[in-house]
Write a structure and sequence with these properties.
This protein is an alpha/beta fold. The chain contains nine helices and eight strands. About 30% of the residues lie in helices and about 20% in strands.
Length: about 290
């Protein structure tokens, strides 16, 4: 500690080969509509040219004060080696910038989470990292609510969207006090039995704001045994989208019949699930290599 030096004790080995010198990470900031600077963590190949033609996957969560830490994952290499920009939008509602950051993205401030994410996407496009035709987005659970909200607000900004076990039927679930977790969740979203919270939650609830317009290509997943987001929420949302949207873009609903909130169990089943979602993104963005 006194010398402030490091010594590597163990490094994860990648059997298929991986040269970390080929990639670069950076932290940039987007400016939200109210002037707040929103961090974005990025990783991509060093030879990236910022010409707006790069495929990009931007993910977000922004709830419960949980921080979306940037960390190494071998599962991302398949995308990175194909020239993807991988980004994490550290939107308000998470805990990355302290307690204030969390409180500015919950209850009657929740819409900041969604407008922050949109600002991050717009910034990546403006800076030439990608373009709407090459931009995919993803999130799960409360991050799925984020995805559902932003595709209602700015469907033109994204080519593809992946929502895993998304919490999208906000009003109906939060009004059902007998559903597990509902009452304690009022501290995060608000109690819709109160008029002020009801109207505010209704303004962004993904299921309740589906409109007759064009949506991105979408993959929605659910787990039959999910106790946190019951399977009927993504099913209802997918059905309403199919009945209402005006485009012919693919909309897939994939329900795992033996899975819970965190997906299938078992090392290889989890990898197959990840591979399926990666294949969806590649197909949606027209990448066939």
């Amino acid at each position: 500690m006194s010398a402030r030096t490091r010594e590597v004790k163990k490094e994860q080995e990648i059997p298929c080969g991986y040269d970390k010198q080929q990639f670069v990470t950076e932290r940039i900031f987007a400016t939200a509509s109210d002037g707040t600077h929103v961090p974005i963590s990025l990783v991509y190949r060093k030879d990236l040219v910022r010409n707006g033609q790069n495929p990009c996957l931007l993910v977000g969560y922004g709830a419960y004060g949980s921080s979306s830490e940037p960390y190494f994952s071998s599962n991302r290499l398949s995308l990175l080696e194909r020239g993807f920009v991988y980004g994490i939008a550290h939107v308000r509602g998470g805990g990355e910038m302290g307690r204030h950051w969390y409180e500015q993205g919950k209850l009657l401030n929740k819409r900041n989470t969604f407008t922050d994410f949109i600002a991050c996407a717009e910034h990546l496009i403006a800076e030439g990292y990608t373009s709407p035709e090459h931009l995919a987005i993803g999130g799960g659970s409360a991050g799925g609510l984020l995805i559902g909200a932003v595709v209602n607000m700015r469907p033109d900004l994204f080519k593809a969207a992946k929502a895993s076990v998304p919490f999208v039927d906000l009003i109906n679930t939060m009004l059902a006090a007998s559903v597990p977790l509902t009452v304690i969740e009022w501290e995060e979203w608000g109690d819709p039995n109160e008029k002020t919270y009801f109207e505010y939650m209704m303004s962004y609830s993904p299921y309740d704001n589906v409109a007759a317009m064009e949506y991105p290509t979408m993959l929605i997943t659910a787990g039959l045994n999910d106790a946190r987001v019951q399977y009927w929420e993504p099913a209802k949302w997918a059905a309403k989208l199919r009945a209402t949207k005006t485009d012919n873009n693919v909309l897939l609903l994939k329900t795992e019949m033996g899975a819970g909130h965190f997906g299938t169990s078992g090392r290889y089943d989890a990898l197959r699930e990840d591979a399926f979602e990666t294949a969806f993104i590649l197909d949606a963005l027209g990448i066939d290599r």
